Amino acid sequence: MEVEAAKMIGAGLACIALFGVGIGIGNIFSSLISSVARNPASRSQVFGLSMLGFALVEAIGLFALLIAFLILFT
After folding, report:
1. In a structure prediction context, what are the per-residue pLDDT tens digits for the chain, which is 74 residues long?
2. Greatest C-alpha distance within the chain
């Protein structure tokens, strides 16, 4: 019983990283919208960098979710 409770606590702690991922994605796209609204001609330069940032932040979220599942099911 104690091992299962420890696994649940560990998986919950691993999911705390998902809050940071949500904040990071919000910051990336709010900055994209703001920069394109100020200078529409820079869309082609800024969009690629924002997609790269989105992919990196999303990868961190997937890693955190993977760790949570590994804690739960091993």
Report:
1. 688 888 899 888 888 888 999 999 999 999 999 999 999 999 999 999 999 999 999 999 999 999 999 998 98
2. 60
Tell me which residue of 58, 52, 54, 51 sits closest to 17, measured CA to CA: 58
68: its two tokens:
């949570």
Contact between 13 and 63 under an 8 Å Cβ cutoff? The reply is no
How many Å apart are CA 48 and CA 55, to the nearest integer?
11
pTM score, two decimals?
A: 0.81
Identify whether the C-beta of residue 57 lies closer than 8 Å to the C-beta of residue 23.
Answer: no
**Which of these, 59, 57, 66, 54, lies nearest to 14 by C-alpha position?**
66
Local structure of 15: helix, strand or coil: coil
- Rounded CA-CA distance 23/21 in Å is 5
